[in-house]
């Protein structure tokens, strides 16, 4: 029995890291995407988001995903995001309505656009563990697939494909970008929240985004109020307890891993 289990695990492990199979899909705007011809062969890394339009955890993570899409170039350079519905009831028309209502700028694909076949590939477990929606799949330009992606390692995994989210690394001229922060909280506990722009690993200079933008959190960088700084980062400082009375997507993911005996609770 031990030998059989070992061989099963070994065979599963050997599947991880396979090259992504090609696919052709039609998104909710009627645009056809061929994975290799239109994206990978052009040097783009593709981020697939497996979701469906009425998935509660997908809705909860949506502001974070939208921010990441902007941070990585909004599909203009070497990274493209595509959301893929896992459900037959999501047509391209449904996905288009969802994108319009939620302000989603990256492409989305419903069942009549070919989403189910693509979703089945990565739900199978052949390329990494599937815990349900939302699940992210990163496909490098060489076709290498990476799964097991979370909030903490997303940028690291994406950068490991060689992606920069920029037009040209050799151009050192500063580019002005519009920073839009979308902040949501389900906490019923009153807190005072401030957002700051500062250099990573340093305390100064430190610019209070909340104050300088009158609470809108939207600003141009670099600008008179927010001069260019080396290795910039945005941090959040909260005056008060950080907790709430509801479950979030990380809670649900932890529960799934516990039930599947992949990462059981210890407390």
Tag the structure with descriptive keywords:
267 residues; alpha+beta; Glutaredoxin; 2 domains; three-stranded antiparallel β-sheet; 12 strands; globular; disordered N terminus
Tell me which CATH architecture of the largest domain applies here. Answer: 3-Layer(aba) Sandwich
How would you write the strand order of the largest sheet?
A: 5-4-3-6-7
Question: What share of the residues does DSSP label as strand, in percent?
Answer: 15-25%
Task: Give me the CATH superfamily of the largest domain.
Answer: Glutaredoxin
Q: What coarse outline follows from CA principal-axis ratios? A: globular
Low-confidence stretches: 1-15
The CATH topology assignment of the largest domain is Glutaredoxin
Count of folded domains: 2
Assign the structural class, choosing from mainly alpha, mainly beta, alpha/beta, alpha+beta, or little secondary structure.
Answer: alpha+beta
> What's the helix count?
8
**What share of residues is helical?**
25-40%
Mean pLDDT: 83
Compute the gyration radius: what is it? 20 Å
Distance between the termini: 31 Å
Please summarize what this structure is:
The chain is α+β, with helices and mostly antiparallel strands and 267 residues long. 28% of the residues lie in helices and 20% in strands. The strands form four sheets. Strands 5-4-3-6-7 form a five-stranded mixed β-sheet. Strands 10-9-12 form a three-stranded antiparallel β-sheet. Strands 1-2 form a two-stranded antiparallel ribbon.
Q: What this model shows, in words?
A:
This protein has 267 residues and is α+β, with helices and mostly antiparallel strands. It has 2 domains: 158 residues, Glutaredoxin (3-Layer(aba) Sandwich), CATH 3.40.30; 92 residues, no CATH class. It contains 8 helices and 12 strands. The strands form 4 sheets. Strands 5-4-3-6-7 form a 5-stranded mixed β-sheet. It has a 3-stranded antiparallel β-sheet with strand order 10-9-12. Strands 1-2 form a two-stranded antiparallel ribbon. Strand 9 and strand 10 form a beta hairpin. The relative contact order is 0.13.
């Amino acid at each position: 029995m031990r030998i059989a289990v070992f061989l099963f695990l070994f065979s599963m492990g050997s599947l991880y890291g396979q090259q992504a199979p090609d696919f052709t899909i039609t998104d909710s705007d009627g645009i056809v995407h061929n994975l290799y011809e239109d994206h990978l062969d052009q040097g783009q890394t593709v981020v697939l988001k497996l979701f469906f339009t009425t998935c509660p955890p997908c809705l909860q993570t949506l502001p974070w995903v939208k921010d990441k899409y902007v941070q990585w170039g909004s599909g203009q350079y070497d990274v493209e995001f595509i959301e893929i519905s896992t459900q037959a009831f999501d047509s391209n028309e449904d996905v288009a309505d969802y994108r319009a209502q939620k302000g989603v700028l990256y492409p989305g694909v419903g069942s009549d656009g070919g989403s189910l076949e693509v979703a089945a590939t990565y739900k199978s477990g052949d390329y990494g563990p599937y815990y349900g929606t939302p699940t992210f799949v990163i496909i490098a330009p060489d076709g290498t697939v990476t799964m097991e992606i979370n909030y903490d390692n997303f940028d690291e995994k994406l950068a490991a494909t060689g992606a920069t989210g920029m037009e040209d690394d050799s151009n050192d001229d500063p580019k002005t970008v519009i920073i839009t922060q979308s902040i949501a909280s389900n906490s019923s506990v009153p807190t005072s929240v401030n957002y700051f722009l500062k250099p990573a690993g340093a305390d100064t200079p430190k610019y209070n985004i909340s104050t300088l933008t009158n609470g809108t959190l939207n600003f141009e960088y670099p600008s008179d109020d927010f001069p260019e700084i080396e290795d910039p980062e945005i941090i959040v400082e909260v005056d008060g307890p950080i907790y709430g009375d509801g479950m979030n997507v990380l809670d649900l993911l932890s529960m799934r891993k516990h039930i599947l005996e992949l990462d059981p609770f210890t407390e």
